[in-house]
Each structure stands twice: as C-alpha cells, then as structure tokens.
User: Fold these one by one.
Assistant:
Number 1:
Amino acid sequence: MKTATKWLPKWLPNKGNKTMAKADLTTDTQIKKAIKDTIKTAKTANHPIAGYKGLELRIRPHKDSQDATADFRHRYTHPITGKRPYMTLGQYPALSLADARQYHSDNMQLLAKCIDPIEHRADAKQKEITDRQNTLQHFINEWRDIQDSKNLSTGTINKNKELLKPIESQLGHMRVTDITPSIVIKFINGIQKKHTYKGLRVRTLLKSILQIAKAHMVIEYNPASELQGTLKNHKVKHRPALSNDVTAFAKLLNDIDQLDDTRQLYNKSILQLLSLTFVRIGDACAMQWADIDLNAKQWHLEPQKSKGRGDMVDSIVIPLAPQAMAILERMQPLTGEQKHVFHNSRRKKAPYHHMQEVNKVLNSELMNDGKGYKHIHSPHGFRASAKTMLMERLGYDELITELALGHAMLNKYGKAYNRMTAIEDRTRMMTKWANYLDDIKAGKFDNVIHADFKSKKEKQA
C-alpha cells in the first residue's frame, strides 16, 4: 500500500522545487556567504531580510559560470486589488542592504496612503522623461537640427556655437516652463556687463529656441520677448569707409593698383573686384568659376550671409564691367582649372584665399604712404563708398543701389515685396561706376553724371 504524499506549499523547501527559501539575512557578510552557497548548489534561492516583511534577496546562479545575480525584491499586497506583486528594487551590491531597507520603508509609507509603489515609480519615471523633454536643452537640440538643414556658412555655424555656449551652460538644464522674463533679463544683463552687443545676439537666439517650445505648446508665451527697456542698447559702429572724400578714395584705388602682382596678386585682384562689384569680402574670396558667365559677363552669386536673413536676397546677378572682366581674364590661366577663382590648396576645408590676408595688406605699410588704412577704410567699406558715390556723384536713386547691394526691398511691415532685378539698368550703372573709378584715379574729379530714370512717356508729356 502506497504512502500518501503530504502536500506542501511551493514556497517551502523540498527536493522538487528549484527556488529555495533560506534563513533571514541581517548583514553584508551573510549576503556574500549566501551568494557563494547558492553558486555551489546551482539553484535559485530567496533569502528574507530580517525585520522587513516582504523584503528578500533573490540569488540566481549563472549557468556555466562561477557567478550569480542578486536582486532585492519587495513583495507586498496591492492596496486596491489585493494582488501580491513583486517589485524589484535593484541589484546587490550596486544597491546596498541599507538602501534596500530604505526603499522598503518608502514603499510601506506609500502603501499606508493606498498608493501602489510600482505604479508610483512608473509615474515618477514618466514625469522625469517629460521633464527632460521639456528642458531648454531639448529645444536647443531641436533648434540645432533645424540649423543643420539650412546649409549655413562655416562662419555662421561658428558664431552660433559661440552664442549657444552661455545658453547651454546656464539655462540648458532648466525646464522651459520655469524660465521667466526676469530670469532671461538677469541672464542677458550678466553677458552685457562685458559684451553689450553679444548679449543682444544671445537674447535673439534664445528667443528663437523658446519659440520652438511655444510652437509645441509647452509654454504659452515666449519669456525672451518684449524685453524693451530692460536691456542695454548697442550703438551701431559702422565699419570704416572712405565714402565722402573722393580724393582720398582715389588714392586708395591707386594704392591698390600699385601692389606687387607677384606677391600680392590675390590681394590686389580681390581689392580691385571689391571696388568694382562692392560685394562682401567673404563672397569675393570664395568666388567660383562655375558662377561666372564669361559670355554674358555676369556673376551669379549666392551671398554667404544671406541665408536665413529676410533683409537680403538669396541670390543676385552681378553685372561685370569690362574692368572686372579684365581681372578674371588675368586669373583664368592661374586658377581656371580649379573650383575657386582665388584657389588656395593649403586650406583644406575652404580652399580659397583667406579674407584676413586682404585685411592685413589693406592695413599694412604697403598702403597709404606706410600708414595703412586701419580705422580709415575696410574691405566692407567699399559697399558704403559705392552706395554713397553712386547716389551723390552719379545721381542714381535708392532703389537701384539697394538692388545692387543685394538688399531685399522691404515694405513698412518689414517684409520683402519688390522682386525686381533691374538687370539692364544695373549693367549700365556698373559700367559707369567702373569708368568713374578710372576717371578719379586719373585725377578727374569733376565728372559728375546724373542718371535719368524717367520713362519715355514722362519725357514726352
């Protein structure tokens, strides 16, 4: 007659159950010994932690390895459903015995308030994720992604990096919902103590970043907006230009023409082109053969600084006067096989002449009887000189000179509205301008020409 097998609960030790319940643990020494013993038996074991009901250490040996994983777990009764879930607290020894006891106590306090610890932890984790996504750094990263898609110039990218540094270091960790106008004002004022203009540019950049958060409806208003009267104004300091003294400007042109063709060919040619085309120096140095139509005598230019700016056109056709064409014809045998007109193989990322070299020559003792033109005239100054003299000396109006400079024509609301190019009028104007420069270099200062833009109908009326 067979003896009946007595039924035992699964949690009690028996030979058929791989999970072994062991004696209560009270010290780290006992934990380390329990881990070694469990590895020898190669069976998972649960060890209660003395004095903390429901808190245990589960030890699971690794197969084919003299090692094991030890997890602190808390089994409790759900305050509403009555179920008995396990909550893993962390691995030993990364989570110490003292920390496990503290977690148990925290859970018991939550349970006393009818709060489930697992649900509470999930909610806290979700809040942490949401808070992280709502930090300014999150929107800085999004703003940076937008800028990366715009194909910005290297100079603009470097300037943005410089302006982002204080924003990231001082405000990046903050939630955008915690950033107030007073915080922005204090932040910008701190920068303006040393750099007034930089502070204003940082504020503009911060406003753009926060505008993304507003677009995502994370904030209702942009705290970097409407700060008039709270920040220091920057007095615009125009770059030096010889725009009113025609005699001094003529001397400058002659100084450029007398530069050595052997040592200063690039600098000489670039400065001559600046005087004839009055483009920005960065655009002149980066001039590409592919953008020049030698037959039409035109330069199809996409100004480097126009990207993302509403006050400038994205592209412009610059008519090339015969004097400008002569410079290109001089350069063609030297760099015609290269991408850039002023090719420089020593610069890998930007293989063309560096604009600082042009500045150095203009300010050097080679110019202006050994005194140079520092604080007198800059490469950018050719734009101011051309606009002033075209209007005051040659009689051209505001519209055509602004078009020649690549400025977008704005209405009273600041939006571009006039898309005319006036290419025929500008072609004639550029030739007259080049001839005017030749005349003043030769000492002819009385050749004032007044352009007449009246239509034939107006003349006949």
Note: The chain has a mean pLDDT of 86.
Number 2:
Amino acid sequence: MHLSPLRTTPTTAPVLSWATRGPRAARAALAALPSPRAELRRTVRWATQHGLAAAVLRRAAADGDLQGLMVTRTAGSLEAPYEIARDIRESASLHRSRYAWTTADHAVVREVLAHPDLRSGFPEPERGPVARLAAWAGEPDRLGPLTPPSLLVTDGADHTRYRRLVTRVFSARAVEALRARTQEVAAQLAADLPRHVDARGEVDLVEAYCAPLPVTVICEILGVPAEERERVLAFGQAAAPSLDLGLSWAQMRRVEVALDDFRTWLVGHLEHLREHPGDDLMSRLVAARDEETGEGLSQDELLATAGLVLAAGFETTVNLLSNGLVLLTGHPAARAALAADPDLWGNAVDEVLRFDPPVLLTGRAAATATEVAGQQVRAGEMISAVLAGANRDPAVFTDPDTFDVTRANARDHVSFSGGRHYCLGAALARMEGEVGLRTLLETHPDLVLSSDRRRRPTRILRGWATLPARL
C-alpha cells in the first residue's frame, strides 16, 4: 500500500500549524485526520475504480485494441481521438473491443444514449474478489458526480421524479435570466485581464478568465455569498477530475478530500438556504415539491445536485471556453464571419462543441440482454459511446474535419449526451460559451495565443490547462 506524503489542505493545515496553536489544538486536529483504515479503504477504492481499469486499458492499447487506444493514447492530444474514432467507425458501426463494445457512429451513439435497456455508469462487477473489495471500500455517503444519487448515474422511476423537479428549476427561462449577470461578470473579467499580465507580457486565459467565469455563475446558482466564492472555486478546481477515468492515487485522494470538504460546507449552506431562501436556483430547488406527490428532493439528492453542478458545470464549461478560444483565434475566417453577422454566435458555440467537445466519451451498461445496432449485447456488457467521434461522422456532417461557424447542422452534435440523460446544463453551457467567447474577443480583438499553451492531461475531459496570450 502506498500512502502519499501529508499535504497542506483545508484538513491538514491545522496540524501543520500546531506550533502556533498549542498542543491541545494539534491533538484535536490530528484526531480529525483520516485513520490508517480509512486511507486503506481509499487505496482499495482507487485500485478498483481507477487503477485496475487504467492497467487493463493500457495493456489492451499495447495490443492495438481500439477502445484501449481511445482512452489511453488521446490524453493531451489534439488529433489522436479523431484518428482513432475514424478507425472505430470504419471497423464497424458497433465495434467489439476486447473488454467492451464501442462506437463512433453518429446514429449508433444516439441509439445507445436513448436505449431503454442501457443504463448510465458502469455495470456492477461480477461476484468475486474484486467485487468484494469494491464493496468493502465503498462509501455510500460519498459526494460525487458519478456516485448515486447523482442524476448522472440514476435511472428508472427515481430518475424520472428527480429530473422532473430539477428540470423545473433549471429551466431555459431561468438560465436565460442569468444572461445579463453572466455578461456583467464576463465584461469585468475581460476588462481586468491587463492586471494579470506577467513579466513576459502574457496572461493565462484559463486562470484569469475561463475558470473564474463559470465558477462565478455557479456560485450565483448555488446562492453562495461573495465572501465564500474563492472557497467554492478551490472546491471546483480540486473536484473537477472526479469525472475522469484512470486517476492516479494522489489525484483521487485530492478529489475525495475536496468533495468531502465541499459536502461538509454544503450541509451548512443548505440549512442556511432553508432558513433564509434567496432568489437563486438552489433556494428554489430546496423549496421545490413534486406536483403529484408533494415531496421534494431528499437531503442526499440536494447534495448530489449541488455537487454535480459544481464538478460537471465547472470543468466542462472551462473546457468549452478554452477550446473555443483556440479554434476562433486560429480561424480568422470564422472571426470575420462573426463580426459580419453576430447572430452566428450561438451557432459558433455549437460548432465548437461539435469540433472539439469538452467530453470525449460516455458509457452505458446493458441492464439485460438486448440488441444494439443489430448486435446482441449481453447483460452487464459495457458500451462506450465516443461523442467526439460521432461529431465527426461524415454521414452527418459535410467535411467534418473543417471548423465552420456557418455550418447549418452544427447543433446536431452529441456533446451534451442524449436520451433521458441529456445534459441538464446544456442551455447554461451554450449561454456561457456565447457570452464568454464573444465578450473576450470583442474586448480584446487583437488577442494572440502563445504557442506554448498546454492541454489537460485528463483522459475523458478535453480542454486546455494553460492558454498564455498577449492582449
């Protein structure tokens, strides 16, 4: 077992400062640290959730398996996902890889996302040593976007009830009401960029613009007071990798610590919203009641929804903005078209989502033996739907490898998933993308990105870690 060295976090900082606080405070802080048993369980969780999957996929990739290549060889690469997706699509509309099915065919991806016999998330492991270890190490109360009762991994009647309430609050009208505030935030951030220019005359747009814009909007949604927003930004940055596959042990530990800290903070915040409701969407969700049953969301469902808004809404929108900036600054014809016809901005955001989406792929598991794209899929088998590949399917998109903001069917992309798990934040992401990209590029029309920009190393999430630029 490997235990990482102690790091200064909101949990460990009190221990590291014991000399200035006295031995009693140090003992209390030490008592609050995870026990060796808790760390052992965390290590086993990592092994069963990330380590084993990563090792298996690396081995498959070494043997030329297309799904293994898709997951392990595309991290940090701009072109590799689309080259491998083309190979998958040309192999079969539904390709049988070593450990699962996979598809980059637009029609089949849509079928998979809407199929009644396919469930979100990963299948339950077969009974055996790994399954027993995973059950022993699991923590049912852990907050996370891929942990029940998150909407991402909830199906059936619970999903219908749950989504109905959340959809009523996070409606298109409610999101549109946030547009004016998002515009204010974007304009202020864009105006402040010169203050962040470093000694080389450059500013990192991810740090100074792409990240603070969505987290500020998320804080508005969650009803977070201004003095708490830096804290929520830290939570969001630390928790965002929870959507990825194959995290290192240290990465998973940082994510879990951040989510645990966020849960602790969120319990108190929800109690405050119950006693002092505001005009924010989270206050409305706390008060929402089902018209048929009169019941609202449970405490765990409210916590899971807030966690999903933070983890999924933060990282994916940061990636949308950074991907969009690279594409638009690299295509002068697109910039000229938008300047000539500003009504194209909405379509331009959809073309960004099609051409370089924030999420590479998603997965479904067969709840029962069924048929998909003419193939017999057994109960428990996994199907990987390569969203980025479907977005470049030449059967749907003419010249799919060309970035074209005037593309008539750009909105036919599948970057927001589909079926009953279609992204609840789609309208919000489109609005933030349009406002964020347009405001920045209109405020700084001569902006030039540096060539030493760096992509994120994540496997499933696709975006830029740094975007140094001259204004």
Note: Confidence is low (pLDDT under 50) at residues 1-22.
Number 3:
Amino acid sequence: MTSRNEQDVEQRTMRKISWRLVPFVALMFFINFLDRTAISFAGPNGMSADLGLTALQFGLASGLFFIGYILLEVPSNLALHRFGARRWLARIMVSWGIVSLLFAWVSSVEGLYTLRVLLGIAEAGFFPGAILYLSSWVPAHQRSRILSLFYLAQPLTVVFGAPLAAALIEQHGLFGMAGWRVMFVGVSLPAIALGILALFWLVDRPQQAKWLNDEEKQWLTQALEAEHAAKSQAAHHSVRGIMRNGRVWTLCLIYFGFIYGLYALAFFLPTIIGGFQQQFGTTFNIMEKGAITGAPYLVAAVVMVFWSRDAARRGCKTWHIALPALVGGISVPLALYMDSPLATMLVIAVTASAIFAALPNFWTLPTQFLSGASAAAAIALINTLGNVAGFSAGYITGALHDATGAYTLPMLVVGGFMLLSALLMLWLNRQRSQPLPVTPFVQEH
C-alpha cells in the first residue's frame, strides 16, 4: 500500500468511525448526564416541596449518586472487558433507565436517597467504559480529536436537556402525575430504548464492522495492533507505585476542583435561577428557566471547541488548564454579587466556559509522564477520586446553604477549590523537569 493510498484509507476509516460510532456514543453520554442531573430540574419545580426536602437533603440526594458509582467503577470496567463493550454499555443504559424511571413514583426522602444510590450503581463505569470503547477504535494520534467530539455532549446536555426537562415539567397532570414526575418518565424511556438499540448498532471490534470494507478493516487492525505492541515493549512504572506517586495525586486534586465546580453548578444552578424572583423581583416561567439554565453551557460548548483547538495547534500548555481554573475560581462567587439576572448569567457563563475549557486538556496530562498500564491505573484513580467531588459538591453546598441561608459561602468554597486547581497546576509544571523514578513494571488487574 503506497503512503498516499494509506492516507486515503486512514481518512475514509476515521470519517466512517466519526459518523457511525462517535455520535451514537455521544448520544448515550447525553442521556447519561441528563438522567444523572435530572434531579436538579425536579427539585425547584415541585419535588422538593412535595417531598419536604431541605437544601441539605436535596444536596445529599444529589451527591449520593456517586457512592455506588465510585465503588463499582473499576469492577464495571472489568466486566466490560469480560463481556464486551457492546453488551456491557447496553446493559448499563437499560438498567439506569429503569432505575431513573422509578423516580416518577418516589414518595419519601428515604426512597429518594435509595434510588439515587441505585442510579449510581446502575451507571457505574459508563464514562470510562465509553472512553475505553472509543479509544479501542482510534489510533493514538487521532484519539484527542475523537474524544473531544465525545466530550462535547456534556455541555450540550444542559443546553438542550434543560429546555427538554422544562417542556416535560409543563406537562403537569399527564397520566395523573405532577410535572416533575412526568419529566422523569420522559428522560428515562430514551435510555432504555437506546440501550436496546446499542446491541444492534455497536460492534466490539473492527473485524465485525460491516460498514468498513476489507481494506479499511486491515488498516485499522494493523494500526491498533502495532500501537499495542509498541506499548507492551515500553518501560512502565509499577501500578502499585502509582498509588505512591505525588504527581498522580496532584492531578487527582486538580481534577477534584474542576469536578466540584461542574456539579455544584449542575445541581444548584436551576435553584439559583429560581431565586431570581425573590432577589431581583423577576419572574420566569418553566420554559424560560430551562432556556436560561442552558444558555451558559451553550457558550461553554463553543469556548471548549476553540480552546481545545488552540491547545491542539500549540501543544497543550500549562496555561491552557491553569488560566481557566483561575478565571473560574474568581467568577463563581462574583456571580452572586451581580445586580441583575442578565449580569449573573453572563458571569456564570464565564464559569461554565472555564470548567469545560480545562477538562479535555486536563486529560492529556497523565500520558505526558506515564504509559501503558501505569497510565490506565492513574487515569482510573484520577477519575474515581475526582467523582468524589460530585458527592461533596452536592452535600457541602446544601449544608452550607442551610447553615447560612444563602449561596454566598457555598460558591466561595467552589471558587476556592478551582483556585487551588490553578495553583497546583502551576506547581505541577515546575515538577515536570524532574525525572520520575522508574520502578519495575508489575501488571495488576
């Protein structure tokens, strides 16, 4: 195969993967994040009143999702390896759709807590499993572009999900249900349907893809096998040694700050918008609240695309991550001191843009000094501990609101964590020139 012909085959193959697999898996991620954060729309639109929830109880319910998710993330990925990504991702979607559907009939605080824990258990492993699945189809030099397209689904979930949730909540009385209960039915059924469809749409290996011709299958298989062989021959750090590595734990703390900010906004932004009437004397209907909630994330999606494109062109620099962390840390509490809903939402848009500008670039860091199984172990550890922030953000934000009667202190805490991420990123950059001690590679599972 000539070099020119090989380039043509690569372009055709990647184009087919980009159109066949990436949009479908991104749609799965869209529904995944929508179901996970649906409680944020339900809370201020009837659920908190119907169940008698305080801000602390609402925050605890929001965060309880992450307990089962964190504990079962690694076992879920091991099961994905054993049963295949196609079947396991489909299983995850169907099971979380069923659990999410049950929220439509929850009648007590205790039942809400139980279902949030079960939802985390059902969803455990989806995000790293989806990343692993797409990575197994894409050579390393194409991977960042493909994964950035996948990651775009997260901010777009709020852009389109918030108006969708609002439209469903407005169907109050449908099936004799309150509007927030109708919403849970409306966002849960697509997860079940898409999970069933995944069994027929996804394939585990390139050799099974009927939409690739023989030449494309051969090129992709050879490229992935050559990459795997090169990694198996490279030097590795002990997976056990990763647990004692200061740089990895620094990355955990940096990621914690971003995820804390992400979920504090996701869970409490609709509630903050609901307070505009008392704060500014401005009233919005449910659809307007949904559109206002989604607007900052639309800005964030655009900023993420251009910021990531700049990082790819220049090579990811420290400031591609540290600067958004700094901007986000300052803008989070600043939003509470604005004198109008428009000014408040503009500042929140800056915060959301900062978080999403940093996240895709952050994931280039572990592989800059780790490879193979050690990199996989580090990424799993960072993602698992980062998700602890998902629980912490909901619980701490709700507790501090109940204690102070306002969101000022909770948002100062969010800003503090993001500023810490910026400082740690700068510190980590100073450590890069120092060689990382090599320890014998020990394969662990």
Note: The first helix runs from residue 3 to 20.
